[in-house]
Design a protein that fits this description.
The chain is of the alpha/beta class. The chain folds into two domains: 276 residues, Rossmann fold, CATH 3.40.50; 153 residues, Serine Threonine Protein Phosphatase 5, Tetratricopeptide repeat. It is built from 18 helices and twelve strands. The longest helix is centred in the middle third of the chain and has 19 residues.
Amino acid sequence: MFRARLYLAIVLMLSLTAPAALGETATIASDQAAPAAALDARRPIRDKWALVVGISKFESDKIPTLKYSTKDARDFYNYLIKEGNFHPSHVRLLLDEKATRRRVISELGNRFLARLARPGDLIVLFFSTHGSPSQMDLRGKSYLVTYDADPEDLDATGIGMQEVNEKIHSRVLSDRVVLVLDACHSGSSDPNAKGMHRVGNMDAQALAEGSGQLVICSSRPDEQSWESKRYENGVFTRNLLDALRTSGGKLPLGSAFEKAQQLVETEVREDRPGARQSPMLNAKWAGNDIVLSVPATEPAKVAPTVLADLEPDSSGLGGRVTESKPAETQQTIAMYGQTKAASIFPSANQKLILTAAYFSNVANPKEALTAAYEASAANFNNVEFYWRKAKILIQLGKWTAAMACLKGCIVDDPNQSDFYLARALCYHHMKMHGLATQDIQTAQFKNPLVSRHIEFGE
């Protein structure tokens, strides 16, 4: 099992971070830096935001499926919200069919990041998908391949790296942006390989040149980046996350890279005789290192007007309840999985009516169920596909079958609150009210954003 993941880049457009906030010594690349600029660069991280994208399946049958892209994205997302001190409402997760070109650009632009991020904030962007390097394009452009991309017209349907940089520089107000690109370009007919054609890696040096960026690649341009034989992740992604957890999550990002580099080289050498994988760092950025999990100094609530404009993402946290209102004007809000999010900040004066439509309200559920069974069979180790099947079974009122799917979902991801809410609804309809109440309480314990006042609807 391997996926030729020849490219994982972390583009860091980071200012200097306050030594007091990070517990580290500030360093400046140039002794000629202006004192005022250096002082401003050391300011603490005001708030933290992230957009995480993973695509394993694509709309076009001309694009090979990927094995662990969605899992890598989900694992990275879970790290941010559970260990990295990112508030769940500040992180958006787009998997597979939700990761269209329009949706990604929208979340990067007016709907989310450009709308909310402010100077002094930290932004993390993570993409795990196919990539198309500049060697494939007549104009020398590099592209990320979205769910709805046409491989024969990437300029119109993919996302160009120049476009990402333009959005960051012109629309996003923060000057601290971490861009993680798990977008490989070695190419292969192997369905486990990531890449469109065998043309080599993107030029990390060129990406960093003149941008003030730091680029980390998962391998040298003439090497492959491997899927692990030991676990269900890419070797670099897993070891990077493990390295970030070192020292109680307080290891600076540069030190985490060095640790991950050693772990990757060792694992590939041991498990792939004759193969080599050496992550590389290319820097055109002056600044001290940063601890990714450092808490924000001024975390902000996302306004209900902003949340109302956001489409449901793949996190399972979207579409909760509106901002609290006075008791005399309290409104009961029925939640529907296919509608826009109203808010995810519950209060004592809010109520959630839990119905089948909260989880799924597709137009042709029987047809969707057939497709879901096929998808879960082809992705037997991916919890997202079983969750999709469980939701449609709930819409159809097939409570016992839904329970069987949810059992596996909870085993694979015991911290996902929506799994417990879904099972609670199944228990309710099966007249097992005590167990339904227990699962409601578990969901509220796992996720403090879940409403404290939940009732079952028909």
